Amino acid sequence: MAARTLRRDREQALIDALAASREVIAPVDGLRYGPIRGAAEVERGPGKPARSLKEFFFPDRETLLRYALADGRVSVSTPAEPDAPRIVWGAAPCDVAALPILNPLFSWDYLDATYLRRRERTVLVCLACEEPEEACFCTSVGGSPMGTEGADLLLTPLGEVYHVQIVTNRGRALVEEFAEFFGPSDEATERRRAAAEEASVARVTRRVSTDGLQEALRYESDSWQTAAEQCVDCGICTFLCPTCHCFDIQDEGTPEAGERVRLWDSCAFRPFTRTAAHEPRPTHTSRYRQRILHKFQYYPQNFGRTLCVGCGRCIQHCPQGVEITAVLNTVRE
After folding, report:
1. pLDDT, tens digit, for every residue of 94-117?
2. 192 SS3 class
3. Which of 88, 15, 21, 18 is CA-nearest to residue 56?
4. Is pTM, for the whole model, over 0.90?
């Protein structure tokens, strides 16, 4: 892949130049990514934000249509989706790697136009993880702290410069448009980048074996009860997860006017998938089993991909200290 360099003391000027011509999303604190007006609003903590990027492609609340009844006639309108170009700057590789996993879902039996439009208009610039967090296990699910999957550009810090790996044509176009900020790369820089990646990968020490995992996870296993004992069905893991995508659709308003909205939901919640005739997962254990099997058995069977990027948020932010890697090993054994 082609590569360039970016002096780190020029990064702020580049972000300001990007923000002058398009929407820019970047880390704004330890909690989240957010829209920024300039480089002064970017704030990088020691790790990735607690919330992932998915809300900028699959919002937690999204109006699908609005309706109104007047003079005996019903009018229906759909919100306009912006077409302006958008940049995500400095995203964690695991957050960006989640998007290729979600793409098949939103373009499977139905083309989700708003999700696909947001993907199409967004250029994704990753920042490699120099110091993976203790909860990370990306290398166990095919990822890397310096992975390029889903990215258009990957920035790797190397002292006073970033190594800029050009992954896609969209990334190349961005580098060419702002060519004054980028310099050449050379063999020495490439060797430094390779050494930095090797060192970063070695720092990911949490492991879970996924070889044969689909076949090993048995629906009727007695160990699900034990594995689910700590979980309190709060749903934090599903909302912070970059790949969890369950949602509900509701109509809100009055008979005269209102809107149809799509809202994040969670398989951890008892009403999830409840119908008038049946509640398919009435027990805590059955709901927990659903989450694990969906990620590591059902989704791979349907789409050929594990529904997990190993970001570790479900471990790091669980109020009960549940570790999904330990659960997988327990159920498997």
Report:
1. 999 999 999 999 998 889 999 999
2. helix
3. 88
4. yes
